[in-house]
Amino acid sequence: MEPAPSRGVAMGFDCCMSTETTSGEATATEAEHRFRAIIADSSLNAAETCFDEGRLAGILLEECGLAGTLHRLPTEKDDTFRFATAEGDFTVKVSSSFERPDLIDLQTQVMAHVALDGRVPVPQLRAALDGRFTLDVGAGLGVYPRILRVMSYLPGAPQGDAHPSDVQLAQIGRMVARLSCTLADMRHPAEDRLLFWDLRQLGGLRPLLDVCGESTRELARQAFDEFDAVVAPIARSLPKQLLHNDANNFNLLVDEDDPQYVTGVIDFGDCVRTWVAADVSVAFGSQLSRLDDPWNRGLALLGGYLGERTLSNDELRAVAVLGPARPCAAHPRPGVEHSRES
């Protein structure tokens, strides 16, 4: 019998990093332990088997009363499907068995909190027939159960496939700010997770220079130097809260014909308690380009953001460094096509 196909990033890093410190402030042993913990919590070394679609269809019919056609979407860690049914389309996600259940609960609770607030369009969770929003669907290669969730499939196309005007970029900025404000009063036991893509960790990512390509190594080195010089000295003054932390241009859905432009914010897998400046830096950095005026798109988005939420001078200084540095933190995501995950 052939083994089931596997999915996941399985990076196998052999370097170290610390958090909220410059690289020289932690001993090599401390940094390595922290690095290994971050890799584990981020499931970067996990290679999970693909969840069988026939089995999944049976579970969806029995537990949720839903029948339809599953279409697998390319993702990093979990198994994600677009599910076409007579009731409409849904997104179905089955978590990796390398991902802790409390992190799945973090994502689920954040989505429910934002949906209840109503200011930001996010996927609506659909309960199973017995009222549960998460279902244990068995074991995988890791130590945790695989967890099934069903949620609404939002309209719109990924913003990365669009060509927004400055006005539309400002609308994106306002939506990112509203999302952060919506989460300002929320807490969760797993919010202080260790996460590779939390830009607070950037100061410890310098060892990744060893695996950067020649074309990006010097830019990455500059980003690390600027982080150490500008952000590290003010790190303790930067406000933190629970945040979405991944408003890149493929996790924002847009519609040219919708007055609000942004029709959805998806993929809550990187939720974490981090700097407010780090959260907006993800959106800001995703808009930077190599055109004649590379800052124009990012500044248009930031202008919209600032119309909804004020940032301190220290936070603005941090954004100016963290935004352009975002690709350094995104480096360990090879071979994953961009597609909407919910």
From TrEMBL:
Task: Name all Aminoglycoside phosphotransferase domain ranges.
Answer: 78-286
Taxonomic superkingdom: Bacteria
Listed GO molecular functions?
Answer: amino acid kinase activity
- What InterPro entries is this protein classified in? Aminoglycoside_PTrfase, Kinase-like_dom_sf, Pseudomonas-type_ThrB
Family affiliation: Belongs to the pseudomonas-type ThrB family.
Q: Please state what the protein is called.
A: Aminoglycoside phosphotransferase domain-containing protein
Q: Which source organism does the UniProt entry give?
A: Bifidobacterium tibiigranuli
